[in-house]
Amino acid sequence: xxxxxxxxxxxxxxxxxxxxxxxxxxxxxxxxxxxxxxxxxxxxxxxxxxxxxxxxxxxxxxxxxxxxxxxxxxxxxxxxxxxxxxxxxxxxxxxxxxxxxxxxxxxxxxxxxxxxxxxxxxxxxxxxxxxxxxxxxxxxxxxxxxxxxxxxxxxxxxxxxxxxxxxxxxxxxxxxxxxxxxxxxxxxxxxxxxxxxxxxxxxxxxxxxxxxxxxxxxxxxxxxxxxxxxxxxxxxxxxxxxxxxxxxxxxxxxxxxxxxxxxxxxxxxxxxxxxxxxxxxxxxxxxxxxxxxxxxxxxxxxxxxxxxxxxxxxxxxxxxxxxxxxxxxxxxxxxxxxxxxxxxxxxxxxxxxxxxxxxxxxxxxxxxxxxxxxxxxxxxxxxxxxxxxxxxxxxxxxxxxxxxxxxxxxxxxxxxxxxxxxxxxxxxxxxxxxxxxxxxxxxxxxxxxxxxxxxxxxxxxxxxxxxxxxxxxxxxxxxxxxxxxxxxxxxxxxxxxxxxxxxxxxxxxxxxxxxxxxx
Length: 519
Description:
This protein is α/β, with parallel strands linked by helices. About 30% of the residues lie in helices and about 15% in strands. The strands form 3 sheets. An 8-stranded mixed β-sheet has the order 5-4-6-1-7-8-2-9, sandwiched between helices. It has a 4-stranded antiparallel β-sheet with strand order 11-12-13-14, covered by helices on one side. Strands 3-10 form a two-stranded parallel ribbon. A hairpin with a 7-residue loop joins β11 and β12. It is globular, with a radius of gyration of 22 Å.
């Protein structure tokens, strides 16, 4: 745990023609009841979350590579943040930080194999204690069987049971990760829910030797659209909204896509053929730290076809998950809940998508740490707004609490944990939502690789990004002149003062020299 000093510092159907999926969605959803809609004064909270969605890849953000009409609908009714940053570009660490309002260095939930201590208090606990029915449908990557405050929980395991023998198709998808050839030998990826609980298979995955090898000519999934996890999450979330609309609820609908497996249903895969993919120019990598250069070279060694396959699958996944999001938003509208529901759209971290020759996340470049964040509360907060305020993703916990009119969280734990922080690391950004034109906070922080020799820490201001890489070269990028982060100016004498100020600011937030997790 952190020391005391550190604690103190702190349209689908019209566009794609998915008749079968639509029919199944409608036929399995709970029928609307004739009783009146939610009349409680407390607003509902609906957090729609995807996995690995980079912030700039939305039509409402100005890029039409993948149309996102349903995410755009949420943005049109709320405020979209252009400078929201995840606390850690890895699934478990980022998600547990979001739920607890505590940085990964505070809780020790750092890698995708770490478990959040069940004694930490989450936003689910907070809303439940304030009279809300709390629900989680889909992925949260808990790694264990704890619900962490969610009273209604449908996990990936429930979907696997729904699939029955069709799980074979999903195992094949896990095994054929285009940028992770080792998955064919392990067929074990808890990050993609197979299995959903880490360490479940004591003798290794039973799927080893029982999967097919694919050639990446096409990224089309053999599963029908209605059988995909994301459509399952959409259906079950719609059921929840209908069944529990008469009481205040706090629901997290958490999708897998656009995260791997990169195999969208055929209708979406065919929109992004592998052989028609282009790859971004890598550029000059000589100014980057050696560990970044090695990773870029490792990606290049996978070959161009695998890289294009990754990109094609990722883009198709994003198009499909936007469709699924639309189903939930439609259900919310149908039940007459839009004006009494705070809706959040976000993701746990981004995706490099070939920028700098990198794929997935695991670094401090913008596509990896800048995340989509939209908050909508029609008739209560400004609508169709964009804010450039620097925002930390973990601020969702106190922000939603404030917007719902609840007392601010006062405790970080349910029971005593030695060394646990006494107060949240996170701060509310509700003020920005009420007035999106204000500048808001002036810095955002992130961290990565805390259990390795080279640990990475980032401070982002409006113009600059400083990255402290423990034990190796540091990084400094000027976003005014170099928004793509191609030129590392850490040794530029004209920026020495800026560098030193940012370093001091980072160390005031958290001192990397005192990281107890580093080997």
